[in-house]
Amino acid sequence: MSSLAFRTRHAIGLDAGKKSSPRQGGSLVELVVSMAVILVGVLAFSRALTESLALGARNRETALATAAAQGVVEQLYAADITRVFALYNDDPDDDPDGTGSAPGASFVAAGLEPRAQDGGKQGRILFPVVAGNPAELREDLVDSKLRTPLDLDLDGAVDGGDHSANYRLLPVLVRVAWQDGTAQRELEVATILGAR
Questions:
Q1: Which of 36, 73, 103, 177 is deepest in the core (most CB within 10 A)?
Q2: How far apart, in whole angstroms, are the C-alpha atoms of residue 169 and residue 139?
Q3: pLDDT > 80? residue 164
């Protein structure tokens, strides 16, 4: 049989009963390996895409929290410093324009999901006060975030008295806390307001 006839018979499948060549078996292994490599590549790409989308959402939330905190800090700087503590602390009884008339210590940060324990408001304004007595401004409270103890009335001494009526410096911590899926996140901005 000539080589042309053999090639033709082989091409149209007339030699079907004969053993397959090692090359034909090798192509099946190559196909399986190729499919595995493609599958690994697709899985890696889909994971990277998912992580990229999640990172984009986290970045958007962080930007919203930052904008909310900066907005509150700007409000504090714009207000008369002698009224800031009474306007933004947790005690409605010392509000300058009557009980319950001030904004208080909580605020809403639009676009962020509040945590269950925060009563629907993502933001808090914190001052150096002792727990349970939100109307008493203290110089001697130790808090590294508020940078206290600090001489709030600028008399040259740090004492344990109430300085809500005579402070000239006012440490403030603005905290935005929110729910991010199953995680809780927060952002804090600290500043010290000074009498002008």
A1: 177
A2: 10
A3: yes
pTM of the model: 0.72
Given this model, what pLDDT does residue 135 score?
A: 92
- How far is the C-alpha of 135 from the C-alpha of 144, rounded, in Å? 21
Asked if residue 156 belongs to a domain, the reply is yes
- In a domain, residue 188? The reply is yes
The CA distances from residue 131 to 122, 125, 134, 149, 157, in Å, are 20, 14, 7, 16, 23
Q: Is 86 contained in some domain?
A: yes
Task: Examine the pLDDT at 95 and tell me if it is beyond 80.
Answer: yes
Task: Give the H or E element holding residue 173.
Answer: strand 169-180
pLDDT, one tens digit per residue, over 36-68 is 999 998 888 888 887 877 777 788 999 999 999
Are 63 and 185 in contact, with CB atoms under 8 Å apart? no
pLDDT at position 16, please? 54
- Give the angle 64-188-108 at the CA atoms, nearest 5°: 50
How many domains is the chain partitioned into structurally?
A: 1
Task: Please report whether residue 111 resides in a domain.
Answer: yes
Work out the end-to-end distance of the chain between its first and last CA atoms, rounded to an integer number of angstroms.
109
